[in-house]
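ingest -> validate -> predict -> emit
validate: passed (alphabet ok, no gaps, 160 aa)
predict: started
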Amino acid sequence: MQGYGSTETCPVVTSLPAGSPGEMALTAGKPVLYHRVRIVDAAGRDVAAGEPGEIWIRGRSVMQGYWENAQVTREAFQDGWFRNGDLGLFDEEGYLHIVDRIKDIIIVGSSNVYPSDLETVLGDCADIREAAVVGRRDDRLGEVPVACSTSRLPRTGSAT
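emit:
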C-alpha cells in the first residue's frame, strides 16, 4: 500500500491499496475517505482528466492554518481548498499522478517546462548517470532550463 499527502494534510490524502492493478503502481492512488482532491488551472478551474494542474485538497484532516502566520495561511488556501504546491493530473480511471512542484516549473517565454520531463529524457541517455534541471533567468525569455549532470563515462587525462 502506498499513499500521498503532506504534513499539512495529516498526512494521507490518496492511497493505492494493496491488490491494485500493477500498472497503477506508479500513481498516488485515489482520494481516501473524507477527502477530496481537485486538479485546477491557474484560474482555479477544474481541468479534464489527463491535463496537468495544481493539486487542491479538502478533507477532515487538512490543517486549518500555519501557526501564527496568517499571510502564508491566506496564500495556501483558496475557497477552503488547500493548495499544496504540487502539480498533478488524474487519469481516466481517477488515479492521481504527481507530475512536479509548481515552484519548479520553468516558464520559457509563454511555455511551461517541467524539469522532471527534461530529467527523464536526460536519464535515458546512456552517457548520463544523473541529471537535475533548474531555471536560469534570461532577459529575453524570462527563464531558460539549465541541466547539471554527471557522466557515466570514465575520466581520461590528468588534472592540472
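The mean pLDDT is 91.
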